[in-house]
Design a protein that fits this description.
Blueprint: E1 18-22, H1 26-38, E2 42-46, H2 49-56, E3 63-69, H3 78-88, E4 94-98, E5 116-120, H4 125-137
Parallel strand pairs: 1-2, 1-3, 3-4, 4-5
Helix pairs in contact: 2-3
């Protein structure tokens, strides 16, 4: 089993979990990447649906979870992207990051499978890491 390499090129004693971040806002994507990297995750970025599905479909990528925005460019809705990712990787833990209010119809996550958690923008780094932990460790599909 491969090991991840540290900054100095030495191998670490464990393999890092890969998180796919699907976000079209470059600054937010970079902020999420920094938070996740500092927490020990390896991060792969995708700015739209086709890129997210390509990453998700890569069998060489040891994907542990995804963090995805619901409003993305490229002709695919966030819901279509999440369904596509789950078709490629059933049971993939996902944290949905959205600017939609909880009561908005666009924020309804029913029918997307699980485990899925919702996080409101602006993103609090500690809350993000907690919700990510919740979906990764969920045994019931509810986070």
């Amino acid at each position: 089993m491969p090991f991840s390499q540290g900054v100095d090129g030495n191998t670490c004693g464990r393999q890092r979990s890969v998180i796919l971040v699907v976000e079209d806002e470059a600054m937010l994507a970079m902020e999420l990447e920094q938070v996740l990297t500092e927490a020990g995750y390896e991060v792969v970025l995708a700015a739209d649906g086709p890129a997210a599905l390509a990453q998700c479909g890569d069998p060489a990528l040891r994907l542990r979870a995804a963090i995805a925005d619901l409003s993305l460019p490229g002709g695919m809705s966030g819901y279509e992207i999440l369904r596509g990712m789950r078709a490629l990787r059933p049971g993939l833990p996902v944290v949905v990051v959205t600017g939609y209010a909880l009561s908005a119809p666009q924020a309804d996550l029913r029918g997307l499978g699980g485990p899925t958690a919702r996080l409101q923008k602006p993103v609090d780094p500690q809350r993000l890491l907690q919700r990510l932990h919740d979906v990764i460790s969920s045994n019931s599909g509810v986070a």
